[in-house]
Amino acid sequence: MAEKIKVIITNDQKEVKIPKGVRMLIRRCCTAVLTIENFEGNAEVSVRLVDNEEIRNLNKKYRNVDRETDVLSFPLGVDGTYDINRDTGDQMLGDIVISMPKALEQAEKYGHSIQREIGYLAVHSMLHLLGYDHEQGGIELLRMREREEQVLTKIGLKRDGSYYMDGI
Question: Which of 11, 83, 92, 103 has the highest Cβ tally under 10 A?
Answer without folding.
Answer: 103
